[in-house]
Amino acid sequence: MVSASLPLRALWVTFCALSVFAATTAAICTEENIEVRKEWSTLTTEEKADYIDSIKCLQRKPAMTPKEAAPGVRTRYDDFTAAHANNTVRIHANGVFFSWHRHFIYLYEKALKEECGFKGALPYWNWAWSSDNLTANPIFDGSETSFGGDGAYNASEALAMSNGNYTFPRGNGGGCIASGPFANLTVPFRSFTNDELSLPETPTNALDYAPRCVTRDLNSAISSVNLNQSVVDTLLAQPTIKDFQAYADNLIPDTPFLGPHPGAHWAVGWGLEDNYASPSDPVFYLHHGMVDNVWAQWQSKDMENRQFAVYGTNRTLNILPAANVTIDFEMQFNYLAAPITMRDVSGTQQGEYCYRYDYTEGAPSPF
User: Fold this and answer.
1) What percent of the chain has pLDDT over 90?
2) Domain for residue 25, yes or no?
3) Does the record's keyword annotation contain Aminoacyl-tRNA synthetase (predicted)?
């Protein structure tokens, strides 16, 4: 106990020292307290239900983002979609992408735990395990422990799946999610086109209230090319951060190859392909769990040279003029959390983070 007779300055110094000590000790990550992020199909029925219930809890809670900043927000879940949409032109296909999304999904996991009682760790989607047949994946099988099945059939969505002059064979959905816990899920923001990704700033109406349902068009023709084990292995084999980033987003015009990051977005359909409002679909967080997983795996192969490796600018597609990022570049999260540097998120067992993935490179599918 601190003596009440100490001078005020001494009390303040003592308090600060105790606070620093407490923060330091609380931040120690050990094998005893580390959380393990697991692939969705390996979770128990109870673990899956806990995660889904926690998402629905966020979707019921009131938003924290001020209406003047994002008129469309209605729920706590929308806060995350709004932050992603508001930063889209600065966090994709550039030097910030992996770092920003690592912290974004951590903040989401933290909200699920602290505000909705989620007891587990953020799950992920191992792309390769379902690349040849998305509808057979437990994530998309339409059961009550899935994220819903395909969308209702909507022929007008066929034109959305073109890469330059190459058009993918269309899926069997296109409309609102038709089954499962998130059937007919409604979100408050409009959908966006890929042409809007390279805009210099976020569109002025991006966060206006424009309710619609989340759509799906599961497409194994896309996932089989872009999400198979060979693609994952090639990504992990890239020698530099520049090469790793480029292959992850290696959209080659007029071909079926998109790279695993956009490939997963496109394979699920326009609801997830939408660069701005894609977190509207709860599958977003499983997909980006895998994105973070492969980055962590790539870093772990040579932590001395890869943990703090950065390359690129703070603009989507590295469009100039833009600033080249450094490891101390400060990332913004609007009303979700205080700014944080890329250095602060460079490892999964430092600072606020204490987690690892259960992923074993090349492990066969369990289903």
Assistant:
1) 78
2) no
3) no
Token pair, residue 156, equals 């007008």
Q: Which of 278, 288, 273, 268 is nearest to 148 (CA)?
A: 268
Q: How many domains does the chain have?
A: 1
Is residue 9 a part of any domain in this protein?
no
**pLDDT attached to residue 24:** 39
The CATH number given to whatever domain includes residue 253 is 1.10.1280.10
- For residue 276, the enclosing domain spans 30-357
Query: pLDDT-based confidence at 322, cuts 50/70/90?
Result: confident
Q: Could you tell me if residue 10 is inside a domain?
A: no
288-307 pLDDT per residue, tens: 999 999 999 999 999 999 99
Q: What is the pTM of this model?
A: 0.91
Q: Is residue 18 part of a domain?
A: no
